[in-house]
Amino acid sequence: MSLCVLEEETFRHCCRLILQQSEQLRDGWSWESVQSVLVASAGADSIQGDIDDEDDDADEGVCTVSEGSSQVLQYEYHILYSCSYSTPVLYFRAFTLGRSLSLQEVWSSVHSNFSFRLQNSPLNTITQQEHPLLGQPFFMLHPCRTEEFMRPVLQVAQDHNRPVNYVLTWLSVVGPMVGLDVPLKYTTSHY
């Protein structure tokens, strides 16, 4: 078995540990049951962001940020387990002024520190697709290369005989790319 394979029961255990910490921090993560399937989700967070409302970019991989169009972006995040990839998957929706952002606007809202990495690294795919449990349009960070960036982290933890919460570690890597910062207080607990 690969070091990076995440069994569904381990996924659930990691999520339960995150939920325990979330309860203490009161930051809104919850475990939702949908048609007998459990989903970890966070309430909507609002952040100030800059987006470009124009969709005239010829290269969809390049996103511009307009300096004068500062708007409040609201995000809703869901973490699901992918049986196909044996990894967590981050699904999210983004809103501003009561309307959903387009894929181009989501790319534009990615902080410049991360946009280059998203376009040129293992974390290169933000896509829009139907949420597998809710049947509604969501954006997602595709899990196809999660193992590639998690392997070194898990290997170091194993080499130093340190416990690691796979889901928390993964979320700490992928979350900031789409406006979800994991508070440092989550790392003060031992998993």
Automatic annotation (TrEMBL):
<dbReference type="Pfam" id="PF03987">
    <property type="entry name" value="Autophagy_act_C"/>
</dbReference>
<dbReference type="InterPro" id="IPR007135">
    <property type="entry name" value="Atg3/Atg10"/>
</dbReference>
<keyword id="KW-0833">Ubl conjugation pathway</keyword>
<dbReference type="GO" id="GO:0000422">
    <property type="term" value="P:autophagy of mitochondrion"/>
</dbReference>
<keyword id="KW-0072">Autophagy</keyword>
<dbReference type="GO" id="GO:0032446">
    <property type="term" value="P:protein modification by small protein conjugation"/>
</dbReference>
<dbReference type="GO" id="GO:0005829">
    <property type="term" value="C:cytosol"/>
</dbReference>
<protein>
    <recommendedName>
        <fullName>Ubiquitin-like-conjugating enzyme ATG10</fullName>
    </recommendedName>
</protein>
<comment type="similarity">
    <text>Belongs to the ATG10 family.</text>
</comment>
<keyword id="KW-0808">Transferase</keyword>
<dbReference type="GO" id="GO:0000045">
    <property type="term" value="P:autophagosome assembly"/>
</dbReference>
<dbReference type="GO" id="GO:0061651">
    <property type="term" value="F:Atg12 conjugating enzyme activity"/>
</dbReference>
